[in-house]
Amino acid sequence: MVRKMGVYAVLAFCLYGLFFYWYLFYFADAKLPFEYEGSKADPATFLNGRELMLSEEYSKIRNLLFFLSTPFEWLFYFLLLLFGFSKAFKQWAESSSKYKFLQTAIYLIWLSFFAFLATFPLNYISYTLSKTYHISTQSFPSWMKDELIDFWLNYGTWLIIVPVLYWLMKKSNKRWWLYGWLLSIPFTLFMMFLQPVVIDPLYNDFYPLKNKELETKILALAEKADIPAQHVFEVNMADKTNSLNAYVSGIGSNARIVLWDTTLNRLNDNQILFIMAHEICHYVEKHIYFGIGGYLLLSLLGLYLTYRLMNWATRRWGKELKITDVADIRSLPLFFMILSILMFAASPFTNFASRYEETRADKYAIEMTKNPEAAITSFQELSRSGLSQVNPPFLVKIFRYTHPSMLDRISKLEEYEIKLKNK
Ligand SMILES: [Zn+2]
Fold first, then answer.
1. Per-residue pLDDT at 32
2. Tens of pLDDT along 96-138?
3. Which secondary-structure segment (H or E) carries 272?
4. Residue 338: enclosing H or E segment and its boundaries?
């Protein structure tokens, strides 16, 4: 039975992968609807032939990797349970120490290490791909360093969460999901508070804007929206990537707007001010807080469903998955697998909410700067630098796009431009 289940799971994954290969490479049509042809959103008007070809090619492979990597994780956790690895990790942990906490720490290190090994090939392919297409400029040692920071950061986080989680499961096998959720609220807020000052600096350097002339203009814009000057940062990204970006992070006194140096180096002042105005909207409309609120609500539902599904799977497949009791740490891969499936299932909704905020931010930015030419060309440059698809296939948009497609964003700006001219 166990072997059969393993074969079925691998087969299902292969079929799923083939489906997405067919969907992305043969079925999906990235061609623009004809009414947009020749408009400023038409990539043929701002990319050269080579860039057009590369962006199509690159996006297809990237999208395929995206759709493969999450279900690959599920497969990994499933096989880990099925073939008794989780049980073995626990035995190794118990034979190395008699202290409960150390046992959990050892179990987790084995699980994390195997997960790292299993996901490494896809991560590495993704890195070399982006290097081949000249998006990433990161050296291998620097990339590997980031991977290792990821590893230890995840390990540290789970080492805090897992012992509490399994202690709650033992204490209350019917309500652990609720107590766990209540504890996750202060924890999430604390992590969000620390993110920009403790976690992000592990990866990159943050500093006040370097170009002082530009800084004056940017801070003047920030002041208009009552954002203190010390909340605007530049981050050193040029030795990692060619793509452009800016974002808002942190909560409370740590809330900040961060501009990638690549954005500052490659766009002209008016284009940068448009991007800045977009981020200002996220900041003043407190999109981060809505994000946290939405995330907490979803995680309440998610934890409840995880509780139900874990009980069901243990009752139905406990023997095959080698889980006798949900509250036994051996069930951790099942917990991770269910959580990941639920997050993937929820992503169309969270992406939808995010696209709504992004649309608001674009509108706010163009009304603040009133320079559609600069706005449109900045988006064109964003597409070029990241070789991103202007009009992604439906499933890609639904599952991957936290921002509206460039087709939507640029054509909205074009409408605004026409309105402005007719005034
Ligand atoms: Zn945004």
1. 85
2. 888 989 999 999 999 999 999 999 999 999 999 999 999 999 9
3. helix 269-284
4. helix 332-369
Q: Residue 100 to residues 86, 93, 96, 245, 380: CA-CA distances in angstroms?
A: 17, 9, 11, 45, 56
Q: Which residues have a catalytic role annotated?
A: 279
Q: What is the dihedral of CA 142, 144, 147, 148, to 10 degrees?
A: -100
Backbone angles phi, psi at 403, to 5 degrees: -115, 155
Provide mean pLDDT across the span 338-349: 96
Mean pLDDT of the chain: 94
> What's the gap in Å between 41 CA and the centre of ligand 1?
18
Please give the single-letter amino acid code of residue 281.
Answer: C
Residue 34, pLDDT score: 86
As a whole number of angstroms, the distance between CA 251 and CA 336 comes to 27
| Neighbour count for residue 370 (Cβ, 10 Å) | 13
Q: How far is CA 227 from CA 221, 256, 269, 292, 378, in A?
A: 9, 9, 19, 21, 23
Q: What is the pLDDT of residue 262?
A: 94
User: What number is the average pLDDT over the span 262-289?
Assistant: 94
E strands within 255-406?
A: 256-260
Alpha-carbon span 415 to 355, nearest angstrom: 19
* Cβ contacts of 271 within 8 Å, gap of 6 or more: 374, 375, 377, 378, 381
Tell me which amino acid residue 376 is. Answer: I
Residue 244 has pLDDT above 90, yes or no: yes
Separation of 293 CA from ligand 1 center, angstroms?
18
For residue 358, the CA-to-ligand 1 centroid distance in Å is 5
Give the percent of the chain with pLDDT over 70.
Answer: 100
